[in-house]
Amino acid sequence: MLRYVRTFLPWIAFAVLSTNGEARWGALVGFAVACGLVVLDRRAGRPWDALVLEISSAAFFGVLAAVACTVTPAPFGDFGPAVAVGWLAVTAWVTLAIRRPFTLAIARTMVPAEVAASPVFYRVNAVITAVWAVAFTLNAGLLGLLLAVAPHATVAIVAVKVCGFAIPAVFTVVYSKSAARRARALVS
């Protein structure tokens, strides 16, 4: 669970620092944090395929920071948070489409090789990634809608942002444990 929270630190920084259509500082800090995570994870020996979200985050925030620092008004205006989560949705859906769910390589680092090689392990991670993809998609849509019709509804916007990450995170933990219990029961 902490691994996922750490992975989303650039997005959390962006969400906190990008208010009132001002994406510049959020994008710069998001880019710096994402790059820092990639460097730290590579030094720790994590494989590139376990860093899909970190690399995607660095790419998104790098481009956004470059544009935000050179274009006025800031790109995406008030819809920056919705676009940012939309990018995560696209990233998650693409990893599913190419049959490399972004959770797969992360989860591989937490289990023995024989478990990671099983088809069930792949299916569990495909389900978890699909839940994240749906959550990101719904989060982006709801944020876009809220920002369009009630841009000053700060509590609702924050609630959507938090739920958009908390719900799939909790699902990931619960579903992973449930799948592990089922697998152990089959072996026993």
From TrEMBL:
Record's keyword terms, sorted: Membrane, Transmembrane, Transmembrane helix
Domain of life of the organism encoding this protein: Bacteria
Sequence intervals crossing the membrane: 23-40, 52-73, 79-99, 120-147, 153-175
Protein name: DUF3159 domain-containing protein
